[in-house]
Each structure stands twice: as structure tokens, then as C-alpha cells.
Amino acid sequence: MIEEELAQEKELVERAQRDPKAFGELYDRYYPKIYRYVLGRTASVETAMDITSTTFFKALTEIKRFRWQGVSFGAWLYRIATNEIYAHFRKEKNNVTLLKNMTALPSDTDPLDEVIEAEKELEKHQEFLKIQENLSNLPMKYQEVISLRFFENKEIHEIAEILGKPDGTVKSLLHRGLANLRKLME
Amino acid sequence: MDNDELIKKLENLDVPDIQIESHRRELRETLLAAASVRGLQRENTFWDNLKSRFDSFSRLLQQPAWKFGATSLAVIVITLSIALGLQITGNVSPVVLASNIALNSPELPGLLDGNGEIRVLNVNVTGGTARVICGRDIGSIVEADVDLSTRKVTRTQRLEGFFMPELTEPLKADAINIAMTDPRVKQMVSEGGSVRKVLPSLSSLAGVSMLNDNMLKLVPTPGTAVVQVELNGKSWLIQTNLNGRTVERIIEPQLRTPIPAFWNNAKSF
Questions:
Q1: Is the pLDDT of residue B70 over 60?
Q2: How many domains does chain B have?
Q3: A21: Cβ contacts below 8 Å, ≥ 6 apart
Q4: Rounded to an integer, what is the distance from CA B80 to the centroid of its chain?
């Protein structure tokens, strides 16, 4: 982000800490990015909706405590989203899978047409889904750097800012992550 | 495939850029409304006085509304003022005033069956009257019309088929999994019980949505869910805590009142 944009965003964040309408401007700016990022990490339209919601709720809750100290607002949002994704996968991993013993839940509500359409659209990206599936089998630390680098087109220093790690560590994680991904794909 | 080939593949990958416009719009509305009401509440004189008098209450006030596990800031003010026997004075918003009058009306408890505290779910103020919708954690919903000048409830009506927020399929599955960790629920299932429905309990409604200056609405967040298990024609309600991953209580079918028709007719929004 160029300096002028950064200064504008800084001013917007300060306003948002006092005025909800300003938070709306930040939301408009970042919702598409955060939703796309979460969708890329989870490959699920509905899960991405849930996690995006939680991300912005947390951001709204914590915005008064946000201080512009080496981490931009965008990076901060990505960090919240990354943590929420991690929490989601941890929760899924700990689930006791007893559903097979239960009678199937009667479905008396239809999903939104928009969600159905989104799921159909997602299904068209088979190459992406295949890579994402392989990626999801890697440790979280590799998933994060690879998806931020290649799905979100973030530079190394941006990824470092989001994850709170040094540039060197990010490069190293990327290198090892790609090596592991390559093995999975072969 | 070598490293360079993989990088090239990833760089040229067609990453899906899908957006759900309705979700974007609704989430925005909810967030801004919640932020607006929090701002309004903080400027309220009555609110500030209460905060200074009770340390424990003021600690609660530092937490965001939805971390309370489902009460809005307005409901907290109302609940505490009722507990203290305090009168909410004219510098409180019509929404808070109407809620207080409805919750204090003697006819309300008799109309509301089910379990748990009575909570305000929705308040719509038009001129000098307000329509307040209240309900218990699990139970029926009542609509009360309040005359703000006389401070009296002028009409009450139980609602059937009230719209409740829908849990996502993963959350429903989560609630079922949590319910199944309880040995009593396992016993019911082993005897042929089956899950009939999974809905958020009213106590999971959290945060505040201000649609305009006159309307206050509570917005659900994942928190608790009620799993209805049916066995031999009887229904048990298993209240689960999705965050703590515990079964909080099991409501047995020998309630004084039957499961409200609204529960079985509940639609989603």
C-alpha cells in the first residue's frame, strides 16, 4: 500500500474508533478480500461466511484497542481471519463423529439461492480445489504462508506483518511448505 | 514437478473470487447497528450512573455485547434496573423504556411458557407506542403493545410460528455431536430416539442491530443451540454450549406446559 493510501487508511481507522459509519468504510474495503481469503483457505462457502462474520465482529469489538504500531489495519484483519480459520479447523478436528448413529436431520429450510450458486461456481474451480485439498493436509504454518502468497498475492513482508513473523522465517516456511506440497501432489 | 513448476502453477492458478452479496449486506447492517447502539448507550446518563455505582456491572460493560452470551446492552440495563427496583427515567431511549414497561407488566409471565429468563427480542417504536416482542430462553414468544405516555401495556398476544435465526449445517452438526457426549442423550438414542430439530436457544441471541432510530433487534451469534430429541412420542430439549462444548441442561418432557407449537412451527430467517 503506498504511503498516501496508508495515511488515508490510518485516518479512517482513527475515525472508526469513534464513528461507526467510518467502520463501515473499512468493512466495505476489506470484506471482499477477507471473504475471498477465508474461502480460499476453507473451500466452503458457508464456513467462509461464518468465519468472515466472526472476523469482522472481533475487529469491531477490538478496534478501539487497535494501535498503528508496525501492523496495518489490513494486516490486522488478515491476522484475525487467520486465527479464526485456525480455531475453526481445531474445532473440526476435535469433533466426535457420531452423526452416523443419528437419524438424518430433516431439512426444513432451503439454503439461499445465492449460496447455492456460489457453491456451484466454486465447483467449477477444480484445479484450485485439488490444490487446496492437498494444501489442507499440510501443517497450518505452511497453509498460511502459501495461501497468502499465492491466493492473496501478498509479498513476503506483507505476510510477515500479517503473521507477526520475521521476513526470513516467512521465506523459510514458504520454501519448506512448497517442498511438502510438491510431495503431496506427486 | 520441480519447485519452479509448482510456483508457476500456483501463480497461474484461477483462484475463485466469489462473493455472497446478501451476506455482505446483512453483516454490514448488523455491525454498524451494533456499533451505533453501543455508542448511544455509552452516552446515556442513566447508564453512566449505574456503571459508577456497581463495580461488577461496570466490569461487564467493558466486554462486547455478544460476549455476554446473548444479552444486549439494553437488556442488561433493563434487567439490572428491575432487580434494583429502579425506575428508568425520561432520559432513557423509548426502546429501553418500552422494554422495561413490557418486562414489568404482570400479564407477561403468565403468557410465556417454557424455561429461562424473559428477554426482550425486538422493539419497534412508532410515535408514542411501542411493540415489544419478548420470550424465554426456550419457549413461546409474546408481542406486547406499550403506550409510552401512560407507561402501560395495552395489548398482549402470544405468537405462533415466530421466525428464529437459523444455525448453519456445520453448527447444527456440532450441536448434535456435543449433545451426544451426554450419557443420557446416548441412552435416548440407543433406545430409538432421533433428532427432530436443532435451533439456537433464545439465549444465544446477542449483539444489537439498530435498523433505524426506532427499531432495536437482537442478532444471533453462535453460542448455544437446542437439540430436540424425540423418543416414544416425547421430546427432550438438550441445551448445548457450542463454545464450551458442553451440555448445559436437559429439559425433560414432563414440563408443566407442552413444547410450544411455535417451536415445532419455527421457520428461519
A1: no
A2: 2
A3: B32
A4: 18
